Amino acid sequence: MLHLTLLGATGSIGSSTLDLVSRHPDRYTIYALTANTNVEEMVRLCERFQPQFAVMADTASAAQLKFCLGSATTQVLSGEESLSEVASDAEVDIVVAAIVGAVGLMPTLAAVKSGKRVLLANKEALVMAGSLFMDEVVEHGATLLPVDSEHNAIFQCLPSGYGVGSKPSGVTKILLTGSGGPFRELALSEFDGVTPEQAIAHPNWDMGPKISVDSATMMNKGLELIEACWLFDVDESDINIVLHKQSIIHSLVAYNDGSVLAQMGNPDMRTPIAHALAWPERIVSGVEPLDLVRVSQLNFEDADENRFPCLRLARAAFRQGGTSMAILNAANEMAVESFLAKQIKFVEIAKLIEKTLENIEAQVVDDLQTILADDFRAREYVQQQIKHLAV
Ligand code: NAD
Ligand code: MG
Which segments in the chain show pLDDT lower than 70? Predict the structure, then answer.
């Protein structure tokens, strides 16, 4: 029986993970569930999965959860330190890192540093602290398994025995696919009036609001490009981004003998999560079998950096190195949050990120403090800029 800590239990990845856990009660049991402030949902999940621990972001939510659970077996905690504790406890075998954004970094690193099997959905953690994060994986013998569907697909297309963090041999290109989101064909003149409701309506995937906006700007693909560089020890120039509107092929790996391997499946996150949970075995996921005749067509096109400037910004940040990627990520998180709160326009997101990268000087990464300091500086800068932009 494997004991699981699920960071971000109330989110989209969290609920897909819990669906898999309930399909395999003989293999997995929940040690800890964590969430931001959604007490109502956590009450439901704690009653159903009976974890030893539940962690809420703040004391008020924790007190409310405790009150609702009464004398149940679950111990309720709060705050960042508790997140790291439940991610690193000796009883835990698997940590699913499914908190959204930079707040997921510390608990995910805690899991890595205690040598866990870490299922990584929280791409922002790797984007902001890639070199340091991968060093810790090696130093502490953690097993890092990508849950992001593209990276999970790439991992599946790499030779058996391949370990994340090392350079794969014989590989000439990684082809990172992306649907292009809801605005793949929108007239450029209409981008100015795009609303949050339109931006989060992804054509193929059902995801949380932040990653849905990232998919609409294609910053999601930019973050994934950086994520892939760290996971597979390749350069940004080794990766081509290919638009594939059906989201059936989740990415491809090209080899020096001309072979190109792809991983396919219906767009349902239970497939990559199931793969990472059971690896190197396979388990039933509940995902509908792929019917290629019904899909009938698979289309591919180049990604247009004019339409999606975030792609260019992410490549540039990786090339520049150091804390540039933490600055890019922080600026993006702030800009997306403001767009969702209807404080800025959709088109301002990329502009704000570019301006932040120009104005905050990136440092060489010495330690975590350097990264966190630049993350903070970038957030402050964006906040100031937003005051001038407020719609
Ligand atoms: P979501 O918004 O649906 O869920 C986010 C989770 O994080 C929730 O449980 C929330 O309570 C928790 N959280 C948010 N802020 C927090 C805070 N300050 N402190 C503690 N917990 C907090 O997001 P999601 O779509 O499930 O995505 C989660 C992560 O997985 C993101 O990094 C995303 O990029 C990545 N990812 C998601 C998908 C997908 O299909 N949803 C696919 C690939 C990668
Ligand atoms: Mg993805």
Answer: 390-391
Peptide bond into 280 cis (omega under 30): yes
- Which residue among 19, 55, 150, 211 is best mutated to probe the pocket of ligand 1, counting the most ligand atoms within 8 A of its Cβ? 211
107 lines ligand 1 (CB under 6 A): no
Q: Which fold has domain 2-146?
A: Rossmann fold (3.40.50)
The H-or-E segment that residue 153 falls in is helix 149-157
Q: Which two tokens stand for residue 137?
A: 């994986």
> How does pLDDT run across 220-237, given as a tens digit for each residue?
999 999 999 999 999 999
Which ligand 1 atom is nearest residue 209's CA?
2
Ligand nearest to the CA of 181: 2
* pLDDT tens for each residue of 311-368: 999 999 999 999 999 999 999 999 999 999 999 999 999 999 999 999 999 999 999 9
Strand partners, 177: 242
The three-point CA angle 334-222-339 to 5° equals 30
For the chain, which residues make up each domain, given as ranges? 2-146, 149-264+274-303, 321-391
Mutation test residue for ligand 1: of 10, 99, 250, the one with most atoms within 8 Å of CB: 99
Query: Nearest C-alpha to atom 21 of ligand 1 is from which residue?
Result: 36
Whole-structure pTM value: 0.98
Dist. CA 34 → ligand 1 center (Å)? 11
Mean pLDDT of the chain: 97
Does 1.10.1740.10 match the CATH number of domain 321-391?
Answer: yes
* CB 184, CB 221: distance < 8 Å: no
